[in-house]
Amino acid sequence: MSARSCLTVVLAAGEGTRMRSSRPKVLHAIAGRPLVGHVLAAVQATGSRVAVVVGPNADAVTAAVTAQVPDAAVFVQAERRGTAHAVLAARAALEQGADDILVAFADTPLIRPETLAALRAPLAAGAAVSVLGFRPADPAGYGRLVTQGDDLVAIREEKDASADEKAIRLCNAGLMGISGAHALALLDRIDANNAKGEFYLTDVVELARKAGFRAVVTEAADDSEVLGVNTQAQLAEVGAVLQHRLRGALLDAGVTMAAPETVHLAFDTKIARDVTIEPYVVFGTGVSVAEGAVIRAFSHLEGATVGPGAIVGPYARLRPGAVLERDVHVGNFVEIKAATVEAGAKANHLTYIGDARIGAKANIGAGTITCNYDGILKHKTDIGAGAFIGSNSSLVAPVKIGDGAYVGSGSVITADVPADGLAVARGKQTVKEGWAARWRAVMAAKKKPRSAP
Ligand code: UD1
Ligand code: MG
């Protein structure tokens, strides 16, 4: 981390019309986190102060920003009059001063902290402006970087560019560093004399040079970092790039995935080494999986903790608050919510466990349901260590099954069962010898013979 202080202004005032969505563009999520959240995380990783510029009526954006970065300064750009105008909306933060000022876009979520740091390096070396450049396959729509040797001379927006300038392949990725000592003076000189009639941040390059300062380009190491989101298709594309990155990091860390492209991760998924993840597994936010666990195909996990050596799935669903301790087995069509399953316990088939504790080595038979909700309140089920719950039992909470107790299959348990006891709560079986044969005979006699054709 640099010893120089930094303020990053994140522009988030875009209207996002092309998303065709009632949700503000920067709140659309990839890998379980809003676009603006990814940018804020990268900025925070560099140790920079944060200012965010939002549009009018963007309370939801402000709330998301301050939830993630409580000391972020949020400014409203009431009218959308260009990128320089947007940066100046954060004037109060700029006036507080910083050695380096960075400008980032909230709709460009894949930017890495290392790239933000690289952009600051030329400022420390005396340049007044540092611009992130890249070479897109199709430069249409981007500002072109006009260079002379190592110097950046100007950024020409597509609409204002001459034919020669349009032929330049090196483009403005949008990210910029400006020396804090000169930022406000330079930004205040920008006017709206251009094809769009907007205050272009990019004009800061020529203004800096006019004042006798240097401007330089830093090329992005990886073009995918500067992908922006304007449409749902681009949201999906950027999301796919992020998934690829997240999976790659897990593979590098010793996680086994036979078909990584089918595994969907969240930005905060924590998976230890020697975990196996079978195809088609979805991780929502807040999941951690400990060493040696196996997550079998078609499982869905969210807000869950999976202990070492546990086996989950296929077709399991772990919801928020599910905690599986060491060597727990959770099998097909089992749903677990807000419940701790202690070491070595098993629930292998067709079960719902909610608001519960399952003691160590307990066995939960197929079709067991914790009836945790009475329509108004949730209640807890507590199952002791080594207990055995027979198949297709309903445990009506609040209820306690003692250590080592048995519950007979098909029971509806409404009262506590003492340790090592047996509870059977179902209709008693009666057997009538020969009854079925007699019944068939009676019914056959009643059935009318078919009339002849
Ligand atoms: C901008 C750059 C262009 C660069 C491109 C990279 C300028 C003048 N041009 O163009 O050189 O190649 O980004 O993607 O800077 N915003 C506001 N308020 C405003 C205007 C914009 O908050 O008044 C925000 C937008 O929401 C967006 C960002 O600033 O996140 C960039 O604005 P956009 O209109 O997309 O600029 P481009 O025309 O793409
Ligand atoms: Mg743009």
What would you say this structure looks like, in words?
The chain has 453 residues and is of the alpha/beta class. Uridine-diphosphate-N-acetylglucosamine is lined by residues 11, 13-14, 53, 77, 80-83, 85-86, 105-107, 142-143, 155, 157, 171-174, 200-202, 228.
Summarize the structure.
The chain is α/β, with parallel strands linked by helices.
Name some characteristics of this structure.
binds uridine-diphosphate-N-acetylglucosamine, seven-stranded mixed beta sheet, 21% helix, 29% strand, binds magnesium ion, 453 residues, alpha/beta, 19-stranded parallel beta sheet
Strand content: 25-35%
Please give the largest β-sheet.
Answer: 19 strands, parallel
Shape: elongated
Count of individual beta strands: 33
Bound molecules: uridine-diphosphate-N-acetylglucosamine, magnesium ion
How does the helix and strand content classify structurally? alpha/beta
Evaluate the radius of gyration.
31 Å
- Residue stretches low in confidence (pLDDT < 50, at least 5 long) are none
Helix content: 10-25%
Count of DSSP helices?
A: 10
Spatial separation of the terminal alpha carbons: 97 Å
Mean pLDDT: 97
What's the helix and strand layout?
Elements: E1 6-12, E2 29-30, E3 33-34, H1 35-45, E4 49-54, H2 59-68, E5 73-76, H3 83-88, H4 91-96, E6 100-105, H5 113-124, E7 129-134, E8 144-148, E9 151-156, H6 163-166, E10 171-179, H7 183-187, H8 204-210, E11 215-219, H9 232-252, E12 256-257, E13 270-271, E14 276-277, E15 282-283, E16 288-289, E17 294-295, E18 300-301, E19 305-306, E20 311-312, E21 316-318, E22 322-324, E23 329-341, E24 346-358, E25 363-364, E26 369-371, E27 381-383, E28 388-389, E29 394-396, E30 399-401, E31 406-407, E32 412-413, E33 422-423, H10 435-446
Helix pairs in contact: 1-2
Bound molecules: uridine-diphosphate-N-acetylglucosamine and magnesium ion.
Uridine-diphosphate-N-acetylglucosamine (UD1) binds next to helix 3 and strand 10.
